[in-house]
Amino acid sequence: MNSPGRHDSGLKVAAAVVAVLGVLLGIWAGTRAHSNRSTAVSDAAQRVPVGAASPPSATDFANNFNEVPHTVVRIPEHLPDFTLTDRNGKPTPVATWAGKSLVLNFWATWCAPCRREIPLLKTLSTEWAPRGVEVVGVAVDHRDQVAAYANELKIAYPILVGEEDALDVAAKFGVDSPVFPFTVFTDRRGQVVTLYVGELHQAEANLIFLAVQHVNDDQVGLAEAQRNIAEGLRALRGATAGSG
Fold first, then answer.
1. Among 84, 87, 89, 197, which residue's Cα sits nearest to residue 152?
2. Is there a domain that residue 2 lies in?
3. For residue 139, which of 48, 146, 181, 198 is within the disulfide window of CB 3.0 to 4.6 Å?
4. In a 3-state reduction of DSSP, which class is residue 103?
5. pLDDT band at 137 (very low <50, low <70, confident <90, very high)
6. DSSP string of 179-204?
């Protein structure tokens, strides 16, 4: 994350970071009325230019997620119903993958951390498919651009595409000021296990996947899995900070 030059500005940014992390991490530990869900924040995210799917202005590439006002209003307990077109223009409901655990990755072709994630998502799609997991990209972008990019990178996993309608889907997950990328993980029953904001890496993916599998196998309840994810992500962040 970029750092302001002046000391007092740095203090304000630090305070904002703490406040945002507190709100987001508080989501999973809140009351049932606020949908106990764990939300991890990474600064490797880019602000969504709301209402536009074309490349944003230079300021949108500042990559200062923690300095951008961001609110997760209410993450749903269950996967909301929605339909978007696939890369070929065919309307495709999310119910197409009923009975599978989903990894819904919200992205755009102009988003650098989104592009960096794609090789990992391709690997996860291949490795996790035999265990009942479907990786699905949700591109908030123009369909022709998405199709060309997906063909160039040989993305084999399903991609749903939309502009304003895809932003509406993001809002269904409680992300009213979305940043890219963010990824939603569900269990095989369609319960939302966690919502990860920012660029996904192998360690975070493995941690979350293990928790989802434990829920799928009825080894732990949803609340316990969410606690395990939140604690594990905090430990990963601490280890990363310590190694830096």
1. 87
2. no
3. 146
4. strand
5. very high
6. EE-EEEEE-TTSBEEEEEES---HHH
